[in-house]
């Protein structure tokens, strides 16, 4: 065989082999259905609902542990990630206040963006003038409201992945039961406190739905959005309130600087009263993915345990 012909046929064989690999991989694995969820809470729920389905799927969380959604601005890499999504799930009600334009951009290129808070009955939303839609977006701290979000996301997911309807429906049914269990757990733990002891003071006003569901009076040092700052007068007024009510503990949040919490403790000390800073709680972001607090259910349990323990004076922080 002349050398040139030999080369050509080798090339042809290699080319044919490559083409069949490409054709095979296309036929064998369809490209995964890509979901990007903004907050750790929404991505956790999306993963729970799509677990074990018989279809390739990718769920990415735009924000990680410790990230504040009120201040989150999308980087070029984030925009690239979002633009490869088949659908984007987000919290909504202006929680992700700096992502509106990015969402509009995604809608223009045909990617649907779906707010989890569309699940909520408007009558159940708390009003708050700090946000564009005049509602408080921190709905996830009432486990019953998270059940409404679970049912809503289940239906949305079935719309996109009809072949996986049975698995998604079964996942949702199991999870709704788990939410019942955690809801009762939080209620039971809260019962360990007297009504007067149930005061939750944290870095920012993220816990109003929690307060309404589980019977706590709630005060945030900053407003409901971390975009507003606490004034000296706010801190002095809260310090007076703590002394007057003899409140044992205040709490910092994993996604917000603990600076204002420390300033409040100092202001209380100036009044010859001692308030401890309880174990850090999770508000707008959950814990690390490989920990119990990295799941919604684990986060709720951690928070109520930390809150009750510190308010009962069963725990004091190490840096006293
Ligand atoms: Zn918040």
Architecture blueprint of SSEs:
Layout: H1 3-28, E1 33-37, H2 40-50, E2 57-61, H3 76-83, E3 87-90, H4 100-108, E4 113-115, H5 143-160, H6 165-190, E5 199-204, H7 208-214, E6 217-222, H8 232-245, E7 249-250, H9 259-269, E8 276-277, H10 296-311
Parallel strand pairs: 1-2, 1-3, 3-4, 5-6, 7-8
CATH architecture descriptor text of the largest domain: 3-Layer(aba) Sandwich
Number of strands: 8
Oligomeric status of the shown chains? single chain
Helix % is 40-55%
Structural class comes to: alpha/beta
- How many discrete structural domains? 2
What is the CATH homologous superfamily assignment of the largest domain?
Answer: Nitrogenase molybdenum iron protein domain
Low-confidence stretches: 1-6, 10-28
Average pLDDT over all residues: 90
Shape: globular
Give the strand order of the largest sheet, numbering strands 1, 2, ... along the chain: 2-1-3-4
* % residues in beta strands: 5-15%
State the order of secondary-structure elements, H for helix, E for strand: HEHEHEHEHHEHEHEHEH
How would a textbook summarize the main sheet? 4 strands, parallel
The CATH class of the largest domain, by name, is Alpha Beta
If you compute it from the alpha carbons, what radius of gyration comes out, rounded to the nearest whole angstrom?
Answer: 25 Å
* Alpha-carbon distance between the two ends: 88 Å
CATH fold descriptor of the largest domain = Rossmann fold
Bound chemical compounds: zinc ion
The number of helical segments is 10
């Amino acid at each position: 065989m002349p050398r040139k012909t030999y080369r050509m046929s080798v090339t042809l064989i290699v080319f044919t082999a490559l083409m069949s690999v490409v054709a095979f991989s296309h036929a064998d694995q369809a490209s995964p259905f890509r979901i990007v969820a903004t907050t750790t809470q929404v991505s956790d729920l999306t993963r729970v609902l799509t677990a074990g389905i018989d279809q390739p799927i990718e769920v990415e969380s735009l924000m990680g542990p410790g990230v504040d959604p009120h201040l989150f601005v999308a980087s070029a890499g984030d925009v690239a990630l979002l633009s490869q999504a088949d659908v984007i799930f987000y919290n909504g009600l202006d929680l992700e206040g700096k992502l509106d334009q990015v969402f509009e951009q995604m809608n223009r290129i045909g990617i649907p963006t779906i707010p989890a808070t569309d699940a909520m009955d408007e009558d159940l939303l708390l009003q708050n003038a700090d946000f564009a839609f005049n509602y408080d977006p921190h709905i996830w701290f009432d486990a019953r409201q998270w059940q409404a979000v679970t049912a809503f996301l289940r239906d949305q997911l079935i719309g996109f992945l009809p072949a996986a309807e049975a698995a998604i429906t079964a996942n949702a049914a199991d999870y709704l039961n788990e939410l019942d269990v955690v809801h009762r757990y939080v209620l039971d733990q809260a019962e360990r406190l007297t009504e007067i002891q149930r005061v939750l003071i944290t870095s920012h006003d993220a816990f109003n739905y929690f307060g309404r569901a589980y019977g706590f009076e709630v005060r945030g040092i900053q407003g409901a959005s971390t975009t507003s700052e606490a004034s000296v007068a706010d801190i002095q007024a809260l310090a007076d309130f703590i002394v007057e009510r003899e409140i044992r503990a205040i709490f910092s949040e994993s996604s917000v600087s603990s600076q204002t919490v420390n300033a409040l403790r100092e202001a209380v000390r100036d009044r010859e009263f001692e308030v401890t800073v309880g174990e850090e709680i999770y508000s707008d972001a959950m814990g690390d993915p490989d920990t119990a607090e990295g799941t919604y259910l684990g986060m709720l349990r951690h928070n109520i345990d930390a809150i009750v323990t510190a308010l009962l004076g069963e725990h004091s922080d190490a840096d006293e």
